[in-house]
What does this fold into?
Amino acid sequence: MSLSEVFDPGVLALPLYDDAHRTLADGIVTWCGDRAEAWAGLDTTDPAATGRAVLADLGRSGWLSHLDPDRPDSDLRSLCLRRQALAYHEDLADFAYSIQELTAAAIARHGTEEQRRRHLPGLAAGTSAGALAVSEPGAGSDLAAAVLEATPDGDGFVLNGTKAWIAQGDIADVCVVLARTGDGPGPLGLTTFVVDCSAPGFKAEPVGAIAPRSWAELTFTDFRVGPEAVLGERGQGLVVSLDALERARATVAAAAIGFGRRAFRLALGHARTRRAYGGRLADLQLVKASLARMDVKLSAASLLTARAAWAMDAGLDYARHSSAAKLYGTEAAGEIVDGAVQIFGAAGIVAGSTMERLYRQVRSLRIYEGASEVIEMTIADAL
It folds into this structure.
Protein backbone atom coordinates (compact mmCIF):
# COMPACT_ATOMS: atom_id res chain seq x y z
CA MET A 1 0.00 0.00 0.00
CA SER A 2 1.35 3.42 -0.95
CA LEU A 3 1.60 6.41 1.35
CA SER A 4 -0.69 8.45 -0.93
CA GLU A 5 -3.60 6.09 -0.33
CA VAL A 6 -3.64 6.86 3.40
CA PHE A 7 -2.29 10.42 3.51
CA ASP A 8 -2.48 13.46 1.27
CA PRO A 9 1.17 13.96 0.18
CA GLY A 10 0.47 17.64 -0.43
CA VAL A 11 -0.58 18.15 3.19
CA LEU A 12 2.38 16.16 4.52
CA ALA A 13 4.72 18.36 2.44
CA LEU A 14 3.54 21.53 4.20
CA PRO A 15 5.85 23.25 6.75
CA LEU A 16 3.38 22.17 9.45
CA TYR A 17 5.22 18.83 9.31
CA ASP A 18 8.92 18.03 9.20
CA ASP A 19 10.93 15.13 7.77
CA ALA A 20 10.56 13.09 10.97
CA HIS A 21 6.77 13.21 10.60
CA ARG A 22 6.96 12.17 6.96
CA THR A 23 9.22 9.25 7.87
CA LEU A 24 6.83 8.22 10.64
CA ALA A 25 3.85 8.37 8.24
CA ASP A 26 5.64 6.10 5.78
CA GLY A 27 6.58 3.68 8.57
CA ILE A 28 3.11 3.35 10.07
CA VAL A 29 1.55 2.83 6.62
CA THR A 30 4.03 0.04 5.89
CA TRP A 31 3.43 -1.55 9.29
CA CYS A 32 -0.34 -1.47 8.87
CA GLY A 33 -0.08 -2.79 5.33
CA ASP A 34 1.94 -5.77 6.56
CA ARG A 35 -0.96 -6.63 8.90
CA ALA A 36 -3.82 -5.95 6.50
CA GLU A 37 -4.41 -9.62 5.72
CA ALA A 38 -4.33 -10.66 9.38
CA TRP A 39 -6.58 -7.77 10.41
CA ALA A 40 -9.10 -8.75 7.75
CA GLY A 41 -9.65 -11.96 9.70
CA LEU A 42 -9.94 -10.43 13.18
CA ASP A 43 -12.59 -11.95 15.41
CA THR A 44 -14.86 -8.96 16.01
CA THR A 45 -17.22 -11.11 18.08
CA ASP A 46 -14.72 -10.81 20.93
CA PRO A 47 -13.43 -7.22 20.80
CA ALA A 48 -11.92 -7.52 24.28
CA ALA A 49 -9.59 -10.35 23.32
CA THR A 50 -8.83 -8.68 20.01
CA GLY A 51 -8.04 -5.44 21.82
CA ARG A 52 -5.56 -7.23 24.06
CA ALA A 53 -3.86 -8.83 21.06
CA VAL A 54 -3.67 -5.55 19.13
CA LEU A 55 -2.25 -3.69 22.14
CA ALA A 56 0.43 -6.34 22.55
CA ASP A 57 1.37 -6.01 18.87
CA LEU A 58 1.48 -2.22 19.08
CA GLY A 59 3.71 -2.49 22.14
CA ARG A 60 6.07 -5.05 20.62
CA SER A 61 6.40 -2.95 17.48
CA GLY A 62 7.31 0.19 19.41
CA TRP A 63 4.31 2.33 18.49
CA LEU A 64 3.61 2.96 22.18
CA SER A 65 7.22 3.25 23.36
CA HIS A 66 6.99 7.05 23.79
CA LEU A 67 4.61 6.44 26.71
CA ASP A 68 7.49 5.10 28.79
CA PRO A 69 8.75 7.80 31.19
CA ASP A 70 12.34 6.98 30.20
CA ARG A 71 11.66 7.64 26.51
CA PRO A 72 11.14 10.97 24.70
CA ASP A 73 7.47 11.90 24.51
CA SER A 74 5.66 12.03 21.18
CA ASP A 75 4.37 15.31 19.77
CA LEU A 76 0.70 15.59 18.84
CA ARG A 77 1.32 15.63 15.10
CA SER A 78 2.86 12.17 15.37
CA LEU A 79 -0.11 10.92 17.40
CA CYS A 80 -2.47 12.22 14.74
CA LEU A 81 -0.52 10.55 11.93
CA ARG A 82 -0.58 7.22 13.77
CA ARG A 83 -4.32 7.44 14.39
CA GLN A 84 -5.10 8.36 10.78
CA ALA A 85 -3.18 5.35 9.45
CA LEU A 86 -4.59 2.94 12.03
CA ALA A 87 -8.18 4.11 11.47
CA TYR A 88 -7.74 3.80 7.71
CA HIS A 89 -6.73 0.17 8.09
CA GLU A 90 -8.51 -1.22 11.17
CA ASP A 91 -10.96 0.33 13.60
CA LEU A 92 -10.01 -1.90 16.55
CA ALA A 93 -6.33 -1.04 16.14
CA ASP A 94 -7.06 2.68 16.25
CA PHE A 95 -9.46 2.20 19.16
CA ALA A 96 -6.91 0.32 21.29
CA TYR A 97 -4.14 2.77 20.44
CA SER A 98 -6.24 5.84 21.19
CA ILE A 99 -7.45 4.72 24.61
CA GLN A 100 -3.93 3.73 25.62
CA GLU A 101 -2.75 7.21 24.63
CA LEU A 102 -5.63 8.91 26.44
CA THR A 103 -5.00 7.07 29.70
CA ALA A 104 -1.25 7.51 29.58
CA ALA A 105 -1.52 11.24 28.83
CA ALA A 106 -3.53 11.86 32.00
CA ILE A 107 -0.95 9.99 34.10
CA ALA A 108 2.08 11.51 32.36
CA ARG A 109 0.81 15.09 32.61
CA HIS A 110 -0.68 15.02 36.10
CA GLY A 111 0.81 12.03 37.90
CA THR A 112 3.59 11.91 40.46
CA GLU A 113 6.94 10.39 39.61
CA GLU A 114 5.90 7.22 41.46
CA GLN A 115 2.61 7.00 39.53
CA ARG A 116 4.38 7.45 36.21
CA ARG A 117 7.00 4.83 37.07
CA ARG A 118 4.38 2.37 38.22
CA HIS A 119 1.85 2.59 35.40
CA LEU A 120 3.41 3.97 32.24
CA PRO A 121 5.96 1.22 31.37
CA GLY A 122 3.21 -1.41 31.11
CA LEU A 123 1.07 0.89 28.97
CA ALA A 124 4.08 1.56 26.74
CA ALA A 125 4.81 -2.16 26.34
CA GLY A 126 1.19 -3.00 25.55
CA THR A 127 1.19 -5.55 28.36
CA SER A 128 -1.12 -3.38 30.47
CA ALA A 129 -4.39 -1.92 29.18
CA GLY A 130 -5.59 1.50 30.27
CA ALA A 131 -9.00 3.15 30.55
CA LEU A 132 -10.28 6.65 31.29
CA ALA A 133 -13.48 6.40 33.37
CA VAL A 134 -15.19 9.79 33.48
CA SER A 135 -18.70 9.36 32.02
CA GLU A 136 -21.68 8.05 33.99
CA PRO A 137 -25.30 7.15 33.20
CA GLY A 138 -26.27 10.69 34.26
CA ALA A 139 -23.07 12.49 33.34
CA GLY A 140 -21.87 12.14 29.76
CA SER A 141 -20.85 15.42 28.16
CA ASP A 142 -21.52 17.25 31.44
CA LEU A 143 -18.68 15.77 33.48
CA ALA A 144 -19.32 18.21 36.33
CA ALA A 145 -22.49 16.20 37.04
CA ALA A 146 -20.49 13.07 38.01
CA VAL A 147 -21.76 11.47 41.21
CA LEU A 148 -19.51 8.43 41.78
CA GLU A 149 -18.46 8.94 45.41
CA ALA A 150 -14.96 8.85 46.85
CA THR A 151 -15.54 9.00 50.58
CA PRO A 152 -12.54 9.88 52.79
CA ASP A 153 -11.47 6.87 54.86
CA GLY A 154 -8.47 7.50 57.07
CA ASP A 155 -5.78 8.84 54.77
CA GLY A 156 -7.39 7.15 51.74
CA PHE A 157 -10.78 6.92 50.05
CA VAL A 158 -13.58 4.43 49.38
CA LEU A 159 -15.16 4.56 45.91
CA ASN A 160 -18.79 3.61 45.29
CA GLY A 161 -20.74 4.10 42.10
CA THR A 162 -20.93 3.37 38.39
CA LYS A 163 -19.13 4.53 35.28
CA ALA A 164 -20.76 4.00 31.89
CA TRP A 165 -19.57 3.50 28.30
CA ILE A 166 -15.91 3.11 29.28
CA ALA A 167 -13.60 2.24 26.40
CA GLN A 168 -11.35 -0.74 27.25
CA GLY A 169 -13.09 -0.93 30.62
CA ASP A 170 -13.51 -4.69 30.32
CA ILE A 171 -9.78 -5.31 29.77
CA ALA A 172 -8.31 -2.44 31.79
CA ASP A 173 -5.49 -3.09 34.20
CA VAL A 174 -5.14 0.55 35.20
CA CYS A 175 -7.96 3.06 35.19
CA VAL A 176 -8.13 6.83 35.65
CA VAL A 177 -11.38 7.53 37.51
CA LEU A 178 -13.24 10.80 38.03
CA ALA A 179 -15.02 10.79 41.42
CA ARG A 180 -16.73 13.20 43.79
CA THR A 181 -14.73 13.89 46.94
CA GLY A 182 -17.03 16.72 48.02
CA ASP A 183 -14.34 19.37 48.37
CA GLY A 184 -16.64 22.02 46.94
CA PRO A 185 -19.79 22.52 44.88
CA GLY A 186 -20.18 21.13 41.37
CA PRO A 187 -16.88 20.77 39.52
CA LEU A 188 -14.86 21.84 42.56
CA GLY A 189 -15.85 18.64 44.35
CA LEU A 190 -14.26 16.28 41.82
CA THR A 191 -10.94 14.44 42.03
CA THR A 192 -9.26 11.98 39.68
CA PHE A 193 -7.70 8.73 40.87
CA VAL A 194 -5.44 6.25 39.13
CA VAL A 195 -6.43 2.76 40.29
CA ASP A 196 -5.47 -0.88 39.92
CA CYS A 197 -8.43 -2.72 38.36
CA SER A 198 -7.44 -6.03 39.98
CA ALA A 199 -8.21 -4.68 43.46
CA PRO A 200 -11.33 -5.92 45.32
CA GLY A 201 -14.55 -4.06 44.65
CA PHE A 202 -14.04 -3.47 40.92
CA LYS A 203 -16.42 -5.04 38.39
CA ALA A 204 -16.52 -4.58 34.61
CA GLU A 205 -19.55 -5.61 32.59
CA PRO A 206 -19.06 -5.61 28.78
CA VAL A 207 -21.46 -3.42 26.80
CA GLY A 208 -22.27 -4.03 23.15
CA ALA A 209 -21.97 -1.21 20.60
CA ILE A 210 -23.04 -0.72 16.98
CA ALA A 211 -19.41 -1.27 15.99
CA PRO A 212 -17.61 -4.05 17.92
CA ARG A 213 -15.29 -2.46 20.47
CA SER A 214 -14.02 -3.20 23.97
CA TRP A 215 -16.56 -1.23 25.99
CA ALA A 216 -17.92 -1.65 29.50
CA GLU A 217 -19.89 -0.43 32.47
CA LEU A 218 -17.73 -0.23 35.58
CA THR A 219 -19.03 -0.68 39.11
CA PHE A 220 -17.04 0.33 42.19
CA THR A 221 -18.25 -1.25 45.45
CA ASP A 222 -16.37 -0.27 48.62
CA PHE A 223 -13.31 0.08 46.41
CA ARG A 224 -10.48 1.27 48.66
CA VAL A 225 -7.54 3.38 47.50
CA GLY A 226 -4.72 5.04 49.37
CA PRO A 227 -3.69 8.72 49.16
CA GLU A 228 -1.12 7.75 46.53
CA ALA A 229 -3.98 7.07 44.09
CA VAL A 230 -4.96 10.74 43.81
CA LEU A 231 -4.03 11.96 40.31
CA GLY A 232 -3.21 15.65 40.30
CA GLU A 233 -4.56 17.77 43.11
CA ARG A 234 -7.61 16.93 45.16
CA GLY A 235 -10.58 18.95 43.90
CA GLN A 236 -8.99 19.40 40.46
CA GLY A 237 -10.47 16.29 38.86
CA LEU A 238 -12.45 18.14 36.23
CA VAL A 239 -9.35 20.06 35.17
CA VAL A 240 -7.38 16.81 34.76
CA SER A 241 -10.19 15.12 32.82
CA LEU A 242 -10.85 18.04 30.47
CA ASP A 243 -7.13 18.49 29.82
CA ALA A 244 -6.88 14.87 28.65
CA LEU A 245 -9.99 15.14 26.48
CA GLU A 246 -9.08 18.50 24.92
CA ARG A 247 -5.64 17.26 23.91
CA ALA A 248 -7.21 14.16 22.36
CA ARG A 249 -9.73 16.01 20.20
CA ALA A 250 -7.32 16.66 17.35
CA THR A 251 -6.42 12.97 17.28
CA VAL A 252 -10.13 12.08 16.97
CA ALA A 253 -10.22 14.35 13.93
CA ALA A 254 -7.22 12.45 12.54
CA ALA A 255 -8.98 9.12 13.00
CA ALA A 256 -12.04 10.57 11.26
CA ILE A 257 -9.85 11.48 8.29
CA GLY A 258 -8.60 7.88 8.21
CA PHE A 259 -12.14 6.48 8.09
CA GLY A 260 -13.26 9.08 5.57
CA ARG A 261 -10.26 8.61 3.32
CA ARG A 262 -10.79 4.84 3.25
CA ALA A 263 -14.44 5.32 2.28
CA PHE A 264 -13.49 7.88 -0.37
CA ARG A 265 -10.84 5.62 -1.93
CA LEU A 266 -13.28 2.71 -2.05
CA ALA A 267 -16.05 4.84 -3.56
CA LEU A 268 -13.69 6.32 -6.15
CA GLY A 269 -12.46 2.86 -7.17
CA HIS A 270 -16.01 1.52 -7.38
CA ALA A 271 -17.26 4.48 -9.43
CA ARG A 272 -14.43 4.06 -11.93
CA THR A 273 -15.17 0.38 -12.56
CA ARG A 274 -18.95 0.05 -12.08
CA ARG A 275 -20.83 0.03 -15.38
CA ALA A 276 -24.08 1.98 -15.43
CA TYR A 277 -26.27 3.75 -18.01
CA GLY A 278 -23.98 2.84 -20.89
CA GLY A 279 -20.84 4.09 -19.18
CA ARG A 280 -19.23 4.24 -15.75
CA LEU A 281 -20.66 5.59 -12.51
CA ALA A 282 -17.72 7.98 -12.45
CA ASP A 283 -19.00 9.55 -15.69
CA LEU A 284 -22.29 10.63 -14.12
CA GLN A 285 -22.40 14.28 -13.11
CA LEU A 286 -24.01 13.69 -9.71
CA VAL A 287 -21.44 11.03 -8.82
CA LYS A 288 -18.63 13.37 -9.90
CA ALA A 289 -20.05 16.09 -7.68
CA SER A 290 -20.30 13.70 -4.72
CA LEU A 291 -16.68 12.60 -5.13
CA ALA A 292 -15.54 16.20 -5.46
CA ARG A 293 -17.29 17.15 -2.21
CA MET A 294 -15.61 14.23 -0.45
CA ASP A 295 -12.19 15.32 -1.65
CA VAL A 296 -12.71 18.92 -0.52
CA LYS A 297 -13.93 17.81 2.90
CA LEU A 298 -10.91 15.55 3.37
CA SER A 299 -8.55 18.37 2.42
CA ALA A 300 -10.24 20.81 4.80
CA ALA A 301 -10.27 18.30 7.67
CA SER A 302 -6.60 17.46 7.10
CA LEU A 303 -5.57 21.12 7.19
CA LEU A 304 -7.64 21.90 10.30
CA THR A 305 -6.15 18.90 12.08
CA ALA A 306 -2.58 19.72 11.06
CA ARG A 307 -3.01 23.31 12.26
CA ALA A 308 -4.42 22.22 15.62
CA ALA A 309 -1.67 19.67 16.23
CA TRP A 310 1.04 22.10 15.12
CA ALA A 311 -0.32 24.80 17.47
CA MET A 312 -0.24 22.42 20.41
CA ASP A 313 3.28 21.24 19.60
CA ALA A 314 4.41 24.87 19.26
CA GLY A 315 3.07 25.70 22.71
CA LEU A 316 0.40 28.04 21.34
CA ASP A 317 -3.25 28.32 22.32
CA TYR A 318 -4.73 25.22 20.73
CA ALA A 319 -8.11 24.52 22.39
CA ARG A 320 -10.30 26.25 19.80
CA HIS A 321 -8.29 24.85 16.89
CA SER A 322 -8.47 21.33 18.31
CA SER A 323 -12.22 21.65 18.84
CA ALA A 324 -12.72 22.98 15.31
CA ALA A 325 -10.74 20.11 13.82
CA LYS A 326 -12.70 17.57 15.84
CA LEU A 327 -16.07 19.09 14.96
CA TYR A 328 -15.43 19.47 11.26
CA GLY A 329 -13.44 16.27 10.82
CA THR A 330 -15.95 13.96 12.47
CA GLU A 331 -19.00 15.55 10.84
CA ALA A 332 -17.27 15.46 7.44
CA ALA A 333 -16.23 11.83 7.86
CA GLY A 334 -19.83 10.85 8.58
CA GLU A 335 -20.97 12.63 5.43
CA ILE A 336 -18.19 11.07 3.35
CA VAL A 337 -18.95 7.54 4.51
CA ASP A 338 -22.67 8.08 3.94
CA GLY A 339 -21.97 9.42 0.44
CA ALA A 340 -19.72 6.45 -0.29
CA VAL A 341 -22.43 4.01 0.76
CA GLN A 342 -24.80 5.80 -1.64
CA ILE A 343 -22.34 5.36 -4.52
CA PHE A 344 -22.05 1.65 -3.75
CA GLY A 345 -25.82 1.33 -3.61
CA ALA A 346 -27.14 -1.99 -2.33
CA ALA A 347 -23.60 -3.39 -2.22
CA GLY A 348 -22.77 -0.78 0.42
CA ILE A 349 -25.29 -2.05 2.95
CA VAL A 350 -24.43 -5.74 2.80
CA ALA A 351 -23.73 -6.93 6.35
CA GLY A 352 -20.02 -7.48 6.91
CA SER A 353 -18.90 -5.48 3.88
CA THR A 354 -16.20 -2.87 4.33
CA MET A 355 -18.63 -0.02 3.60
CA GLU A 356 -21.18 -1.34 6.08
CA ARG A 357 -18.51 -1.61 8.78
CA LEU A 358 -17.23 1.90 8.09
CA TYR A 359 -20.79 3.24 8.32
CA ARG A 360 -21.11 1.84 11.86
CA GLN A 361 -17.58 2.57 12.96
CA VAL A 362 -17.51 6.25 12.07
CA ARG A 363 -20.69 7.20 13.95
CA SER A 364 -19.27 7.27 17.47
CA LEU A 365 -16.62 9.87 16.61
CA ARG A 366 -19.27 12.62 16.69
CA ILE A 367 -20.01 11.74 20.33
CA TYR A 368 -16.89 10.86 22.29
CA GLU A 369 -14.27 13.38 23.43
CA GLY A 370 -17.10 15.91 23.26
CA ALA A 371 -20.33 15.59 21.27
CA SER A 372 -20.57 17.88 18.25
CA GLU A 373 -23.12 20.11 19.97
CA VAL A 374 -20.87 20.53 23.02
CA ILE A 375 -17.89 21.29 20.77
CA GLU A 376 -19.91 23.97 18.99
CA MET A 377 -20.63 25.65 22.33
CA THR A 378 -16.94 25.41 23.27
CA ILE A 379 -15.90 27.09 20.05
CA ALA A 380 -18.54 29.80 20.43
CA ASP A 381 -17.41 30.53 23.99
CA ALA A 382 -13.85 31.02 22.75
CA LEU A 383 -14.79 33.59 20.11
Remarks:
- Residues 207 and 280 are 43 Å apart (CA to CA).
